[in-house]
């Protein structure tokens, strides 16, 4: 039994199939259904539509299928064995939307027929089409009635059924720029469904923002395809713009002396209205405000009403009478609207007036040093013309000296007088001066007509400083001994100058660079003398530049040379060359100390040097005579320069505790007996050969409030004649009881105070051990006195420089005195001031004095800087110290070298000065003085408030009045 199954394809669910009557069937062969309906989308191929199946109950043979009708030339095809019905080409819904196909089946003589209805489904495959590519309408500009209002409807159609009546309209600009899109959005809108274009606001046709036609682009969109068309909205013009000139003021020019009708300018106005719209932009020109000639009463200018060409209405304008004219022109359009403009007419120069010199006769002065071809005088002109080209000349063979001068144009309407040859006042022919005739013409080559003017120039020749003085002789060589005394003339020079007057007056001088020590002088007659004595040891030869300077401006200088050779005089004794300090260890036998070199600055070739002699001067202490030996080495061992050396030896053991420094006065003499005494200092090196004993020390700490740094207050002191034995000692707290505000270095004994220590007194106890002497736990007490000062007192500090006392010396008691030098000094200062004075700072450094002598073989003394503060701020401490420093120095035996006056004082750093003098120490802030001119507050008020302190100086008497003393 054959069975066939019909499987429909591409049939959406829910589609209803309709049976049709079978026609011409034979036997029992039957399709499963007599008719089928299938759906297919247009524009798709090939497509399997369905598979046919037929069945029969009489035969088991194979069923064969065929296309019986409706194949349309191969549009449909059936496979005989499988029954697959296929669409071979794509379909177009818009041409035909359904097809009917008849299919057949055969099996062993049996036949069956069926009907297949193929329906085409529509797709959106056609774009919309506008009814025409260009839509056009016209509106009147500035019409604001019934806004917004429709002005035009656009329409498009679409062949697709699926989107019929679903088109969406939009409008945009042909130019897609942002500015154009914004302008269109402000003025036009379109109904998306109906295609009606609406005007939103009135349109302006005229520039600058208006336009005569608005080009729009409308689009129709069917959901997939878009069509475009162009819309022109033409704006009809109305006469709403008056004519306007592009430039409110027009500058024109016309030459003078021109006939009537000469062209002046062409003015053109602009009208923003449409020139094609009636008479809206048709312009006519006229002169609203003309210039009237005084002589005739007629207008000077005319204008052509159609072209705007302006011409002269009269003949022969004169620039020298009137240089400028102003007229007002009017442009009128066809509607009667007007625009005005201004025309400024400048009359051009025709060079019709001859030039003239401002003077008929010129009286001038000219210096003989004027450079050729350089102008030295200006000859001014007058000429009302502006188009001048002046030509100048010196008239040949007219006057005296005409061949030496010329006149050239300055380029700004004047003539420049120049010399063409050098002038010479010393020439008798020229000294009397010059007189020349000059001419000017404003026409090239015309020296005879009316365009020529003449003038006479008289010149007086002035002498110039054009000659350098002549100094004779050019060089002088002389020789003088160094003991030649000031007074006699060394040499004489003579200077001459050809110039006259002050230019020939000569002044003599010596170039300071050739005489840096100011040894020589020259008088007004050119005679050279000594100002101070010669010194061959300073300079063996002087090369002086003698100057002769005249009185001209600028002055001229002549130079000569004076060479003074200085011969030696035996005026220097031998001396020991500067050396490091001499040292020897105490309590040892005879020792070699040093070998010292002797020198003498005199000329040894004249016998003013070696052989030298040396012996010790009679010392105050005869022990020194027995303890030392100083001898000279043999001359043949002294070296190639022929000098000598001194050998210093000790003869006995020396004890440092009896004197740390020993002085050796030596008398040195040269071969001719010139002698001098020089003292050597010998320092004994300490040995730890003495036991120590308990001692006490007092430390005074002066600090500025707000200082947050810890400070060292000195070494814990025990009584011990030795002072180089720190390395043999160790320190510790007494019974191990340390103080929280102080720290001790157990190796050096140095004591440091914490920044947290408050003002007041601190009593500290320590123990010291020296194993080299078998000593341990020797008691040492230290009292620390701490006081703080306000920062304001720094400005009141006064620095003084003390000579011949080191900072340690000031704190050390001298033998036989209960007070230290510093205590004596402070007592004397307080008594002199009449009030309390305290120490603010003592610097632990020294300032060396620099010697101003050329030959100084003695080390200069050092200075110590001490800062003082008066107890009362009204005391002018610096002035009082400066006034009485000599008396204070005598009373205290502490020599004040200088007093700082009028400077500014500030803190140098957060560190402090520490001066340690064994039984006492002084800790003070570091101050620094600045010179006048710095910015700081005044130290104290200089105006006294009472007469009690006797503020008057030099014997003055204080008188108390209502407003103060």
User: Any idea how many domains?
Assistant: 8
With helices defined by DSSP (H or I, 4 residues minimum), what is the helix count?
A: 6
- Characterize the largest beta sheet: strand count, sense, and whether it forms a barrel: 6 strands, mixed
Helix content: under 10%
In total, the number of strands is 64
Tell me the strand order in the biggest sheet: 54-57-58-52-64-63
Protein name: Cadherin domain-containing protein
Domain Cadherin: 32-130, 131-245, 246-357, 358-471, 472-576, 584-696
Pfam family, one: Cadherin
Keywords: Calcium, Cell adhesion, Disulfide bond, EGF-like domain, Glycoprotein, Membrane, Repeat, Transmembrane, Transmembrane helix
Write up what this structure looks like.
It is a single chain. The chain is mainly beta. Strands 54-57-58-52-64-63 form a six-stranded mixed beta sheet. Strand 18 and strand 19 form a beta hairpin. Helix 5 (821-833) packs across helix 6 (877-892). Mean pLDDT is 85; it is low at 1-23, 850-858 and 933-942.
């Amino acid at each position: 039994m054959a069975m066939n199954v019909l499987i429909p394809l591409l049939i959406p669910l829910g589609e209803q199939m309709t049976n049709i009557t079978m026609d011409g069937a034979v036997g029992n062969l039957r399709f499963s259904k007599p008719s089928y309906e299938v759906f297919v989308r247009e524009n798709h191929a090939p497509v399997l539509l369905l598979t046919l199946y037929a069945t029969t109950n009489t035969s088991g043979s194979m069923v064969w299928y065929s296309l019986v009708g409706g194949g349309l030339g191969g549009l449909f095809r059936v496979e005989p064995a499988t029954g697959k019905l296929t669409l071979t080409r794509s379909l177009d819904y818009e041409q035909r939307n359904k097809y009917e196909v008849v299919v057949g089946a055969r099996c062993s003589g049996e036949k069956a027929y069926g009907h297949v209805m193929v329906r085409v489904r529509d797709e959106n495959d056609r774009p919309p089409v506008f009814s025409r590519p260009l839509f056009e309408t016209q509106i009147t500009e500035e019409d604001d009635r019934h806004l917004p209002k429709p002005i035009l409807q656009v329409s498009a159609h679409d062949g697709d059924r699926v989107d019929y009546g679903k088109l969406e309209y939009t409008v945009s600009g042909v130019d897609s720029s942002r500015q154009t899109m914004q302008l269109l959005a402000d003025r036009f809108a379109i109904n998306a469904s109906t295609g009606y274009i609406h005007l939103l606001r009135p349109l302006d046709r005229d520039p600058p923002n208006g336009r005569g036609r608005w080009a729009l682009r409308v689009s129709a969109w069917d959901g997939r395809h878009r069509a475009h068309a162009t819309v022109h909205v033409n704006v009809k013009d109305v006469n709403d713009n008056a004519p306007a000139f592009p430039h409110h003021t027009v500058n024109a020019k016309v030459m003078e002396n021109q006939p009537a009708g000469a062209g002046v300018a062409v003015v053109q106005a602009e009208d923003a209205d449409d020139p094609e719209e009636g008479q809206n932009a048709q312009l006519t020109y006229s002169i609203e405000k003309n210039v009237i000639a005084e002589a005739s009463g007629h207008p000077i200018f005319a204008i052509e009403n159609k072209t705007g060409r302006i011409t002269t209405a009269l003949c022969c304008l004169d620039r020298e009478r009137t240089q400028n004219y102003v007229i007002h022109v009017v442009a009128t359009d066809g509607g009667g609207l007007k625009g005005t403009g201004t025309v400024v007419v400048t009359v051009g120069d025709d060079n019709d007036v001859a030039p003239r010199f401002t003077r008929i006769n010129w009286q001038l002065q000219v210096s003989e040093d004027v450079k050729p071809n350089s102008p030295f005088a200006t000859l001014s002109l007058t000429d009302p013309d502006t188009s001048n080209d002046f030509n100048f000349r010196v008239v040949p063979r007219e006057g005296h000296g005409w061949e030496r001068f010329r006149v050239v144009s300055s380029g700004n309407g004047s003539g420049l007088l120049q010399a063409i040859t050098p002038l010479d006042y010393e020439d008798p022919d020229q000294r009397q001066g010059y007189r020349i005739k000059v001419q000017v013409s404003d026409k090239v080559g015309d020296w005879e007509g009316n365009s020529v003017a003449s003038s006479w120039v008289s010149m007086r020749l002035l002498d110039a400083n054009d000659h350098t003085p002549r100094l004779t002789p050019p060089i002088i060589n002389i020789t003088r001994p160094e003991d030649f005394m000031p007074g006699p003339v060394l040499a004489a020079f003579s200077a001459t100058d050809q110039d006259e007057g002050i230019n020939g007056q000569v002044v003599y001088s010596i170039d300071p660079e050739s005489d840096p020590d100011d040894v020589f002088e020259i008088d007004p007659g050119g005679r050279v003398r000594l100002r101070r004595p010669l010194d061959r040891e300073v300079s063996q030869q002087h090369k002086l530049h003698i100057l002769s300077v005249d009185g001209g401006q600028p002055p001229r200088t002549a130079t000569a040379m004076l060479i003074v050779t200085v011969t030696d005089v035996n005026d220097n004794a031998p001396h020991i060359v500067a050396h490091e300090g001499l040292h020897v260890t105490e309590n040892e036998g005879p020792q070699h100390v040093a070998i010292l070199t002797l020198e003498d600055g005199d000329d040894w070739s004249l016998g003013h040097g070696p052989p030298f002699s040396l012996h010790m001067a009679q010392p105050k202490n005869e022990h020194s005579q027995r303890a030392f030996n100083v001898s000279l080495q043999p001359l043949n061992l002294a070296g190639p320069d022929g000098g000598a050396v001194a050998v210093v030896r000790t003869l006995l053991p020396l004890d440092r505790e009896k004197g740390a420094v020993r002085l050796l006065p030596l008398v040195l003499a040269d071969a001719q007996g010139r002698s001098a005494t020089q003292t050597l200092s010998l320092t004994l090196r300490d040995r730890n050969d003495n036991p120590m004993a308990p001692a006490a020390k007092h430390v005074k700490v002066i600090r500025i409030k707000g200082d947050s740094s810890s400070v060292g207050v000195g070494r814990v002191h025990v009584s011990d004649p030795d002072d180089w034995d720190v390395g043999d000692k160790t320190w510790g707290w007494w019974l191990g009881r340390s103080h929280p505000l102080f720290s001790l270095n157990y190796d050096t004994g140095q004591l440091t105070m914490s920044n947290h220590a408050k003002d007041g007194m601190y009593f500290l106890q320590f123990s010291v051990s020296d194993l080299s002497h078998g000593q341990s736990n020797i008691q040492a007490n230290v009292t620390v006195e701490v006081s703080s000062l306000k920062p304001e007192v720094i400005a009141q500090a006064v620095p003084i420089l003390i000579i011949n006392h080191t900072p340690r010396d000031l704190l050390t008691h001298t033998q036989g005195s209960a007070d230290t030098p510093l205590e004596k000094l402070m007592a004397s200062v307080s008594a002199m001031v009449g009030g309390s004075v305290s120490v603010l700072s003592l610097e632990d450094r020294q300032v060396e004095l620099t010697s101003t002598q050329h030959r100084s073989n003695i080390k200069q003394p050092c200075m110590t800087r001490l800062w003082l503060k008066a107890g009362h701020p009204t005391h002018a401490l610096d002035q009082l110290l400066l006034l009485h420093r000599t008396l204070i120095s005598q009373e205290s035996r502490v020599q004040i070298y200088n007093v700082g006056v009028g400077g500014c004082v500030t803190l140098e750093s957060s560190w402090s000065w520490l001066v340690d003098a064994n039984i006492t120490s002084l800790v003070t802030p570091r101050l620094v003085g600045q010179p006048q001119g710095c910015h700081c507050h005044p130290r104290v008020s200089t105006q006294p408030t009472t007469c009690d302190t006797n503020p008057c100086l030099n014997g003055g008497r204080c008188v108390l009045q209502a407003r103060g003393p």
